[in-house]
Amino acid sequence: MKNIIKNHFLEIKKILNNSSDLIHKVEKISIFLKKKIKKKNKIFVYGNGGSFADASHFVGELTATYSSKKRKPLPFVLLGSNQAAISGWSNDFNFDDYAVREFSSYVSRNDVLFLFSTSGGNIKKRQSINLIKLAKYAKSKKIPIISLLGKDGGELKKISSEYILIDSYKTGSIQEAHKVIFHSLCETFENFK
Questions:
Q1: What burial letters (b/e) apply to 109-136, b meaning 16+ CB within 10 Å?
Q2: Which residues contact 183 (CB under 8 A, 6 or more apart)?
Q3: Domains of the chain
Q4: Whole-angstrom Cα distance, residue 134 to residue 128?
Q5: pLDDT tens for residues 25-59?
Q6: Do the Cβ atoms of 118 and 150 come closer than 8 Å?
Q7: What angle do CA 183, 184, 188 make, to 5 degrees?
Q8: pTM score > 0.85 for this model?
Q9: Alpha helices, DSSP H only, in 64-170?
Q10: The pLDDT value given to residue 183
């Protein structure tokens, strides 16, 4: 059992040790998001499963507090949190289309879509079809798309305006690296005015 735990720690360490490009990309994304917020734009955040939990965590840190209780709330919005609407739409129509429907009702020109996905979506394997449809909709409306991805980046790598790809095929390791990235983004927002 010790070896399993040790190997998991070593995997995360390896990902983070190869992070020179990650640091530059996180900084670039932070600067971009700050410019959008200063212009009163919103950042819509979404993912599936564990990535939805990460999206929720990220939004919570920025709308409530991360470490500074003095920082103002920031306009990050979690898509997919209305369970009545999701279950109703999924029952009557199709789950894969709900995120587009919700996003289209809120989004304004110059807002941002921020996605979390460990696979990046795969049409043939029917993985994260809802995220692919959401990204394609955003792109059709010229909404910038930022994605935190893993594995080979999938369809979202091709559609996103900017992405960070974690070089791993282990879902847990990808999610943990995503947490380091979104917490790093939170750090950059702590003194944001």
A1: eebbbbbbbbbbbbeeeebbbbbbbbbe
A2: 61, 66
A3: 2-189 (3.40.50.10490)
A4: 10
A5: 999 999 999 999 999 999 999 999 999 999 999 99
A6: yes
A7: 115
A8: yes
A9: 83-92, 95-106, 129-140, 154-159
A10: 97
